[in-house]
Design a protein that fits this description.
This protein has 233 residues and is mainly beta. It is built from 1 helix and 9 strands; from the N terminus they run αβββββββββ.
Length: 233
């Protein structure tokens, strides 16, 4: 394997501590005033560290405590997350939803099992020379990331999971860092869609998945985020 150049080594060093967390929701264009309102507080609320073990239960919501409040949202509208202070590592951002079963308390339901479906993705172009900057990764250095709630999603209460996979140290299995959190929402104005495919966390990813690995050399010309296809309703 070719040795890393001094530039790439300096890049790795400069980005090693640039961690972040998703701690606020943007509903109808309005950002929450305080952290950890609709978003369940995560274990990295003080350190901003990511999750590296995709087989850990932390890969689900990384939560430090149960939820406290639920946002009311309309199907077909945009929902956003605030990255504190920005998405400072390159890689894809994905969004998942999981419907809370009838009779369960959204504040304490843990989202275990095959209940998650992907509803949005901000990834790299499908072809061409891929780098580690904003020209390749549209979410890179963004302070907010957002997706559109599928119009046909059934009404009900949901956990909404945001996930940013940082690839700057992912030259070998286990090197990817996942920054994630889960928000609580109640959807109205939806339809009778059948979200699929359903996956579990942990379970959806394998540490050797191509989407969790990155090569500076040879230069990458294609990339696909791990996990299922996006359900668009």
């Amino acid at each position: 394997m070719k040795a890393l150049t001094p530039f790439l080594l300096s890049l790795l060093a400069s980005t090693a501590d640039a961690h972040y967390r998703f701690s606020k929701l943007i509903v109808n264009g309005v950002e929450e005033a305080k952290e950890w309102g609709y978003v369940r507080q995560t274990k990295n609320y003080q350190t901003n560290a990511g999750v590296t073990d995709v087989n850990s239960a932390d890969i689900r919501c990384f939560q430090n405590r149960p939820g406290t409040s639920t946002a009311s949202v309309q199907a077909g509208t945009k929902l956003g997350f605030v990255a504190m202070s920005a998405v400072t590592h390159f890689g894809p951002v994905s969004f998942y939803m999981a419907k809370v079963p009838e009779g369960r308390d959204i504040n304490t339901w843990d989202g275990a099992g095959n209940v998650w479906f992907k509803v949005g993705e901000i990834s790299a172009p499908s072809s061409g020379v891929l780098g580690s900057g904003v020209e390749t990764w549209p979410a890179y250095n963004k302070k907010t990331v957002e997706f559109t709630i599928p119009q046909n999603v059934p009404n009900g209460k949901y956990l909404v999971r945001v996930e940013s996979i940082a690839l700057h140290q992912a030259q070998s299995a286990g090197g990817a860092q996942v920054y994630l959190s889960c928000a609580q929402v109640e959807v109205s104005g939806g339809g009778n869609g059948n979200p699929s495919p359903l996956v579990s966390f942990p379970g959806a990813y394998n540490r050797n998945d191509a989407g969790l690995l990155w090569s500076y050399y040879p230069v990458r010309t294609s990339y696909k985020a791990p996990g299922p296809a996006v359900w668009r309703g």
